[in-house]
Amino acid sequence: MQKEMLNFDYYNPTHIIFGKNRLEELNQVIPQDKKVLILYGGGSVKRFGTLDKVKEVLKSREVGEFGGIEANPTYETLIKAIKLVKEENYDFLLAVGGGSVIDGTKFVAAGALFDGEPMDIFGSGIGEKRPITKALPFGTVLTLPATGSEMNSGGVITFVEKKAKLGFGSAYTYPVFSLLDPELTYTLPKRQLANGIMDAYVHVMEQYMTYPVGALLQDRYAESLLQTLIEIGPAVIEEDNHDYNTRATFMWSATNALNGTLSRGVPQDWASHSLGHEITALYGIDHARTLAIVLPSLLNVRRNEKHDKLVQYAERVWGITSGNDEEKIDAAILKTREFFESLGAGTRFSDYGLGEEVVDLLVDQLERHGLTNISERGDQTLEVSRQIYTNAL
Amino acid sequence: MQKEMLNFDYYNPTHIIFGKNRLEELNQVIPQDKKVLILYGGGSVKRFGTLDKVKEVLKSREVGEFGGIEANPTYETLIKAIKLVKEENYDFLLAVGGGSVIDGTKFVAAGALFDGEPMDIFGSGIGEKRPITKALPFGTVLTLPATGSEMNSGGVITFVEKKAKLGFGSAYTYPVFSLLDPELTYTLPKRQLANGIMDAYVHVMEQYMTYPVGALLQDRYAESLLQTLIEIGPAVIEEDNHDYNTRATFMWSATNALNGTLSRGVPQDWASHSLGHEITALYGIDHARTLAIVLPSLLNVRRNEKHDKLVQYAERVWGITSGNDEEKIDAAILKTREFFESLGAGTRFSDYGLGEEVVDLLVDQLERHGLTNISERGDQTLEVSRQIYTNAL
């Protein structure tokens, strides 16, 4: 029997301010009576002058700074920001950076108003997992297109001591606004540009590569995004290619990959992310590169469960029309792997100097975090995850 | 020189509640302290029981009713609703119906709080055109997918005496929520189903069929929507075909055709709508059918200005790959015309018993309403509009 489209809600109140020369508008979209804390990461927003430009726009206000949010933002760092916000009574947060800084800022926004220990926002053996019921308002200035965090309400936080990477979200943690200036990507190194493309690509796949439910429009939207990323990928990773439309399309595609447009009414997987997070937590490999390791292997191991959508993906996204279904699936998985490799990412553990010793450790991590029945049907057991890791050696 | 993607803002706070058996949730999403006025159109929401179901869900509250909003909602009727809202102090409006009822409700929401004469919300020789700065909150229960009004902030109002059909909009006239239950479309007659498909199709074309600005994702999204409407059109207009996914895809496609997803950063035309509105105002032909008359003719007359996108449309939406550019364009226009005709709509004035006598009268109307330099470049003069009307005889 044909499955039916799922019931859904869609609510996304974030105001997107997209384009060139719009930084001045920050002073209008942050209410005048707010005391603003600017949060950022390492040195790049300083080095390339973005932080100075933001401060110049807000110079008539009382503004504080909190730097040093990591590429995988840690609880240990963010709890310091929460303390600062409370002590100094900041009541508006401004994230200047990529997805890590934005995720971190979301956690600070929620944690500063959380009743009890912010640790308890999380479950999975970390805390009590109690819901977020309020958060400070915050905006973002995006410098690195990748995670889509600028237009959704979720985030992922790393717990250093516990070697865990866990998600959170709520209706209260949408950015009030996000300022997206494609020219801010002109200073990004190739590695981060490539990571952004792959991160967005796998976000789409998590929402698309499941089983059909007659969601014809959502499927075509997802295929649009995959085709666009494939089309622009080679030009995006040319560091010195400052073609505006290429970077604008990259930025808007990464936002659309995870702003709710693609996921309405369809099942979602997210197992590649679960398996990838454990790799980053244990070995510190870039998030996007862990996805490049996991996804091709997962598609291969889960080819029966995902059969119908894999054939559709082969035909519509990659234009593969010859061969039987299994041959189309093989060709599509190979194309996917080659696409990631063309962006400079290894797609096997061996490309990162890792061998079969990782499998038991990673599976143990999944078990510890309760990730024992994942994917769109909840049927990806630890044994299946073990096969996926093993298939990626 | 390649044109650049335009700067844009995106803000759409409407909460979509989509799916089966969700009517009960109305009682949660309308704040308990509000005095609610339900607005509706003719008899169909009564005849098919939707109005009774809504009233049953809200039975614990103080609820009023205002019926009789026309298929092309008139100022003359809506001003009575505004009077009622003020006299009885209603502070939440609930539209139950299609785009006409929702457009009308938006105008009532804005008009009830407007400083001065609600007529002055409009320009074009009707009023002073002063901005909307506040509006009553309102929600919608959509029964007829077509206009997209359920997830945007605009509306179109008819002035009977002045034979005018004019638009308005503001940041204050987004629905707070819209409840979209595809099963509510099961009672619609074929004519309205066909109109909905065509209306949504032309909405997409107004945002897509201009000139390229390197907006690769927005182009593919628009093509996705056109392909989806072409794919489901034949099944949608089978009145008795109550396949849930077909109707769900129809409903969500019509919403997406005009909720801002497609128009970000790209030029827009809307000349088919301007020319069509005058036909409805003078001859009372259904809005969607006026678009079916105007669009194929407009594409033909404007084939040079829209050359690049017409070729892209031919290739990607209709799969036309043989012939030179002009032949592809001819074939795509013919396919478009045939699609509308397959839905039961005439695509020439003669199909509606009208002849060349209409042209002068329609052009006069355009002039009276200031529509003398329209389209994406503002270069569609009255003379060009005359050619388009003439080409559609």
Automatic annotation (TrEMBL), chains A, B:
Domain of life (superkingdom): Bacteria
Record domain Fe-containing alcohol dehydrogenase-like C-terminal: where: 194-365
GO CC entries: cytosol
Signal peptide range in chain numbering: none
CDD domains listed in its UniProt record: BDH
GO molecular function: alcohol dehydrogenase (NADP+) activity; butanol dehydrogenase (NAD+) activity; metal ion binding; methylglyoxal reductase (NADPH) (acetol producing) activity
Domain Alcohol dehydrogenase iron-type/glycerol dehydrogenase GldA intervals: 13-182
Keywords, alphabetical: Oxidoreductase
InterPro entries: ADH_Fe/GldA, ADH_Fe_C, ADH_Fe_CS, BDH-like
Protein name: Iron-containing alcohol dehydrogenase
Lineage of the organism: Bacteria, Bacillati, Bacillota, Bacilli, Bacillales
